[in-house]
């Protein structure tokens, strides 16, 4: 059976109204179980500790099968400014300064992973995976992730089993709601990617809170997800990594 991991990015008190609407949308499509990518202190605007009702709602989702994963500590790129044009393009234009782990050394990345994990852990969330914001992970971040004790991480094109040291190819369908031309491109991009990945064993879908603000984009997501859910079993990312291990043990 082909499988599908659906993730909601940027889950935080600051984005909760959009997240809540997207979760209702996904529940309506029967998309569970989901992987919810929580940011412990989104843009330094405060964490889940000050939002008990949101924390309780996420705990309830975890209890019924959704997984909560770490999505950075503050999400934005707070490192020294980019030094080369390519780095500038990557860190400031393509991801709008949201790649928190794009340029971190291993010890700095490890500190953020540890703090984020501890903050979410204290609230009752079982964290076993990490998605670096904008999927940008420096070489130091990749070292820190391998040493973190987490089970999995994900990048643009794959899930990474950090324990077995294996890469599971998993293309990701995602949209960029930041501007009209990007939204137009995203609709064509999603349809094209859907055709191209029909035979891919494991596929990912990444939704962002602001997707819900654009009805045309949401209509595309609805059609795409209905098509995918008719032919693929939804799994959390943890479940997908565990299933790959059972299907093909590393040793
Ligand atoms: Zn994000």
How would you describe what is shown here?
The structure is a single chain. By secondary structure, the protein is α/β, with parallel strands linked by helices. The protein has eight helices and ten strands. The strands form two sheets. Strands 1, 2, 3, 8, 9 and 10 form a six-stranded parallel sheet that branches. Strands 4-5-6-7 form a four-stranded mixed sheet, with helices on one face. 40% of the residues are buried. Helix content is 42%, strand content 17%. The protein has a single domain, classed as Glycoside hydrolase/deacetylase (TIM Barrel). The longest helix has 17 residues, at 106-122. The chain has helices at residues 16-28, 52-63, 85-94, 106-122, 139-147, 180-196, 215-231, 237-247; strands at 3-11, 35-38, 67-70, 129-130, 152-154, 158-161, 166-169, 172-174, 202-207, 233-235.
Question: What's a concise summary of this model?
Answer:
This protein is α/β, with parallel strands linked by helices. It has helices at 16-28, 52-63, 85-94, 106-122, 139-147, 180-196, 215-231, 237-247, and strands at 3-11, 35-38, 67-70, 129-130, 152-154, 158-161, 166-169, 172-174, 202-207, 233-235.
Topology (elements, then pairings):
Elements: E1 3-11, H1 16-28, E2 35-38, H2 52-63, E3 67-70, H3 85-94, H4 106-122, E4 129-130, H5 139-147, E5 152-154, E6 158-161, E7 166-169, E8 172-174, H6 180-196, E9 202-207, H7 215-231, E10 233-235, H8 237-247
Parallel strand pairs: 1-2, 1-9, 1-10, 2-3, 4-5, 8-9
Antiparallel strand pairs: 5-6, 6-7
Helix pairs in contact: 4-5, 6-7
The protein binds zinc ion.
């Amino acid at each position: 059976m082909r499988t599908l991991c659906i993730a909601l990015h940027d889950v935080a008190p600051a984005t909760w109204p959009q997240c809540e609407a997207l979760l209702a949308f996904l529940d309506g499509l029967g998309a569970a179980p989901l992987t919810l990518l929580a940011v412990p202190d989104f843009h330094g605007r405060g964490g889940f500790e000050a939002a008990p009702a949101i924390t309780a709602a996420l705990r309830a989702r975890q209890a019924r099968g959704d997984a909560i994963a770490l999505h950075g500590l503050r999400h934005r790129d707070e490192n020294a400014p980019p030094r080369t044009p390519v780095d500038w393009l990557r860190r400031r234009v393509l991801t709008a300064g949201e790649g928190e782990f794009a340029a971190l050394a291993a010890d700095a990345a490890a500190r953020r992973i540890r703090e984020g994990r501890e903050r979410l852990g204290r609230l009752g969330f079982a964290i076993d995976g990490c998605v670096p914001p904008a999927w940008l992970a420096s070489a130091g971040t990749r070292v820190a992730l391998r040493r973190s004790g987490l089970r999995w991480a994900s990048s643009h094109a794959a899930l990474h089993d950090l324990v077995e040291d294996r890469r599971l190819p998993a293309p990701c369908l995602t949209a960029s709601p930041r501007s009209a031309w990007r939204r137009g491109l995203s609709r064509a991009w999603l349809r094209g990617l859907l055709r191209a990945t029909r035979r891919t064993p494991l596929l990912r879908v990444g939704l962002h809170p602001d997707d819900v603000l654009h009805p045309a984009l949401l209509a595309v997501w609805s059609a795409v997800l209905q098509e995918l859910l008719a032919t693929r079993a939804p799994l959390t990312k943890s479940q997908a990594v565990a299933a790959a291990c059972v299907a093909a043990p590393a040793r």
